[in-house]
Amino acid sequence: MMRFTSKHQAGVVRSGFTLIEVVLAVGLSVILLGLLTMAIDLHLIRVDASRSTVEQATLVRGVFRIVADDFRQAAIGSIQDTAEASELAEASAAFDVDSIDQADPAATTDPLEAEAVVRPGFGMMGDAVSVMAYLERERPSPITPQTLSPMAQQAPPPMAGLTLVRYALADGSQMGGDGQPLRGLVRQEVNRDVYLYQQQLGGDAFAYGTTWSVAPEVVGMSIAYTDGTTTYTQWGTTEGQAPLPVAIELNLAVRTDGLHAAQAGDPAAAADIRNYRMVIALPAGFVAPVEEAVDPAATTSGATGSGV
């Protein structure tokens, strides 16, 4: 029997890859691994940026809540008019002291007689970069230190009575209670009587109160006040303004990083600053004066109104 063999069976069977194929495979693997690493890095960068944004927004939300809680508890009042009471007391007096003094030639006036101190009305006062408001604080109930957390025990004790709270920016020139410089948004609180007394002496009233940094990350602040129709950059200094505005607009510029570079005026650090805005409505600012109060019986069925 004759066998026929094909000439194609004479070929050599390959047992592996050639050198060029190995080099190409390794190169493609390195490129794919690099692209995968780059994609993972970009994803982590975006996740970190999102996390930082959320953390910063949470921080600013907490700051806004602290400020809003204070201002919504603002107390209002005006100077007590004692003219009518004085006239009534003078009319009912048994004798007139002034007429007796004028009849007596020996009566003299004490040159060291001090003028009566007028206690100003209270409400809210401020400008575009700082704001103060009077708060009515209830006397805290007695709590033993053992029932408080360690952080609460280190916090300054709450004040009672009528206190003055001030929010402003600190640049590090003022020192806090722990000896560290104060930066960012600072909250100061002092008793009203201490504030008025130190004002008469020309001293720093807030040095006798409590001062703490609310948010060192805040590098800018602007405040606007509104009475419902007009927006002001100052409140409490213009004649005819109410004790409290209807609402205040608080704008905060918060840094993400690079505090020293931002203070030095680095343009690159300015891109790391985000602006946040909040409008705080003050319920006490909606109370109409007595002479402008509307009689409910005088309203008609067709009258409509809107509220905030």
Distance between the termini: 110 Å
The neighbouring-strand order within the major sheet is: 1-2-3-4-5
Helicity, in percent?
A: 25-40%
Global structural class = alpha+beta
InterPro entries: N_methyl_site
Protein name: Pseudopilin GspJ
Keywords: Membrane, Transmembrane, Transmembrane helix
Transmembrane segments: 12-36
Describe the structure.
The protein has 308 residues and is of the alpha+beta class. It has a domain at 41-75 and 119-288. It is 30% helix and 23% strand. It has seven helices and nine strands, in the order H-H-H-E-E-H-E-E-H-E-E-E-E-H-H-E. It has helices at 19-71, 83-91, 97-103, 150-154, 192-201, 259-263, 267-270, and strands at residues 124-126, 131-137, 161-175, 181-191, 210-215, 218-226, 231-232, 247-255, 273-281. It has a five-stranded antiparallel sheet. The longest helix has 53 residues, at 19-71. The protein starts with 18 loop residues before the first helix and ends in a 27-residue tail after the last strand. The model is unreliable at 106-120, 141-149, 151-155, 258-264 and 288-308 (pLDDT under 50). InterPro entries: N_methyl_site. The chain crosses the membrane at residues 12-36. It comes from Pirellulimonas nuda.
In short:
The chain has 308 residues and is an alpha+beta fold.
Give the arrangement of secondary structure elements.
Elements: H1 19-71, H2 83-91, H3 97-103, E1 124-126, E2 131-137, H4 150-154, E3 161-175, E4 181-191, H5 192-201, E5 210-215, E6 218-226, E7 231-232, E8 247-255, H6 259-263, H7 267-270, E9 273-281
Antiparallel strand pairs: 1-2, 2-3, 3-4, 4-5, 6-7, 6-8, 8-9
